Amino acid sequence: MLALDGSVSPYLPTKEILLAIESAATVEHCPVTLARMLRERLALLHGVNPSRIAVFPQDDCRFERLAGLQPAAPWVIYPPVMPAMGIQALSAESIEVERGTRFRIEADQITDTPPGSLALVMTPNDPTGNAIGVTTAAQLGRRSSLLVLDERSAEMQRRSMIPLVEEFDSIVLMRSFSDWAGLGAPAPGYAITTTRIAAAIDRTDELEAPGLQAALAAVSNA
User: Fold this and answer.
1) pTM score, two decimals?
2) What is the SS3 assignment for 103?
3) What are the φ and ψ backbone dihedral angles of 163, each rounded to 5 degrees?
4) Buried b (16+ CB within 10 A) or exposed e, 15-42
5) Which helix or strand (DSSP H or E) is residue 19 part of?
6) Which H or E run includes 110?
């Protein structure tokens, strides 16, 4: 069993990132411009259109706008899993579907997922370290009305789920700068999804320059 330790990076930020944070007070660009620059660099890094990138504060509200896309649908989670921030307050109804004996999401778990629900899968999973397969994610994407893949530790997966975003109009990949870049709360989170969903969940106007500058430095060093 591989414990991902609450998705906190064991490494300090690089010196380039620290310099970016220090210089944020004198930067000439406003947060909106910095956010646009970040989306463009992330899009280049991941090979997608910038319109498919949403940025937002890494806070307890990051799932709220996703929940608003299907307000009547229940959320489904697949324990064992570390609690997701703010997930308990998103829906009056939430469902737990236990993983299989190997801590995997397989045919039985897909069948137990109510059609039209909002499925939230941490991949790789914390604390088991298991990652969902592309075929399973596609099947779950067809079963649910919205599939949210919490990919805060995406670098530990063997295969990228980004091609699924091109195929499905209801899959959201949630990413974080906390694990691989060692950035804390000021840095934004981001999502790779459809243009429609990205526009609905983007919270550029709530971001501040220091976190955006740090994220830009991290992407430049990726």
Assistant:
1) 0.86
2) coil
3) -60, -25
4) eebeebbeebeebeeebeebbbbbbebb
5) helix 15-22
6) helix 107-112
Q: Among all chains, which residue has been given the structure tokens 């330790």? A: 5
94: phi then psi, degrees, rounded to nearest 5: -135, 145
The two tokens of residue 176 are 């974080």
- Decide if pLDDT at 146 tops 60: yes
82-117 pLDDT tens trace: 665 556 556 557 899 999 888 999 999 999 999 999
